[in-house]
Amino acid sequence: MCEVVGEPPAHWATVPFGIPLRNVRCRIVAPSGRDCPDWVAGELWVGGANVAAGYRNDVQRTADRFVEHGGIRWYKTGDIARYWPDGTIEFLGRADNQVQIRGYRVELGEVESALRTVPGVRHAVAAVVGTSAPTLIAAIAGDPGEVGDVTAAVVNLLPGYMIPRRTVFFEQIPLTANGKLDRRAVAALLEPGATDHEDGAARNDVEAALAGIVAEVLGVDSVGVQDDFLALGGDSVLATTVVARVRDWLDIDHALVSDLFATRTVTGFAERLGAGRLSVARRNDCRLSPPLPRGRRIDRCGSPRRGLA
């Protein structure tokens, strides 16, 4: 492929592969085996007269990488790319950089491409930390004052499950000895406790209770107090459920769905509710029961003023 580039246009987040050379065919293929439409990421297949017969003395690798389709021999590059409407192919990353987040297949290169469109971002890396509850985190090289709210900047570019739950800023992204991105070093720096960034721990009982409620409603293992409710997959129906449980469990009648949508984090929601004046103890001095596993019910009486026995 080739791309003639002078000064890269300002709207480019990356320098693309370009367009196929003569006698070279390219497909962007989805996991289903179908061709992807413009702007949709998939694996790049290359076909044509320049495709080799296979790997020398490696039958298994040849079978994995070379396929016949439509009477053409194709080479599966392992690169994740997408077509622009003008026929240009943009490289997004490698297939081995695909991860699973809450059951969704996420291409880290696609996340990084969106992050690089944010003004002030010099370089961006998406990484997953944690094993029991994998968390998508963004490492940004740039001035936090210049970059601003990364989540708000990419919310219209990525689906909720692909929006990083946390952003960490660095002066420079770690590179290997040959100048390539060192993903292992980045992931190590993003592990909880590895940076001076707060990891989202609750500061008081009310924040802890709210985080537990939100996590249970969203069906995730845990929620940090700075995590974005919408980025985690929250919507108006789930927000209504959260508020209903807050009113019931914390006895806070003035909790509103609009408060949750306006703040979108546990910390902001708690401040709206006046966490400093609240306690997780009910007015009848009964302590708040912790959230139970999904599907289980708790047997307890409601507040007398609600008319329950």
Summarize the structure.
Pfam families: AMP-binding, AMP-binding_C, PP-binding. By secondary structure, the protein is α+β, with helices and mostly antiparallel strands.
Question: What report would you give on this structure?
Answer:
- With 309 residues, this protein is an alpha+beta fold.
- The protein has three domains: 2-94, Luciferase, Domain 3 (Luciferase, domain 3); 98-190, ANL, C-terminal domain (GMP Synthetase, Chain A, domain 3); 205-277, ACP-like (Non-ribosomal Peptide Synthetase Peptidyl Carrier Protein, Chain A).
- The chain is built from nine helices and ten strands.
- Strands 1, 2, 3, 4 and 5 form a five-stranded antiparallel β-sheet that branches. A three-stranded mixed β-sheet has the order 8-9-10. Strands 6-7 form a two-stranded antiparallel ribbon.
- The longest helix has 14 residues, at 205-218.
- Mean pLDDT is 76; it is low at 193-199, 281-288 and 301-309.
In CATH, the homologous superfamily of the largest domain goes by the name: Luciferase, Domain 3
C-alpha termini separation: 75 Å
- Total number of helices: 9
| Mean pLDDT value | 76
Helix content: 10-25%
Structural class by sheet pairing and helices: alpha+beta
- The CATH topology of the largest domain corresponds to Luciferase, domain 3
Give the biggest beta sheet.
5 strands, antiparallel
Write down how many β-strands occur, each being a DSSP E stretch of 2 or more residues.
10
GO molecular function, one term: acyl carrier activity
Domain Carrier: 201-277
Protein name: AMP-binding enzyme family protein
Keywords: Ligase, Phosphopantetheine, Phosphoprotein
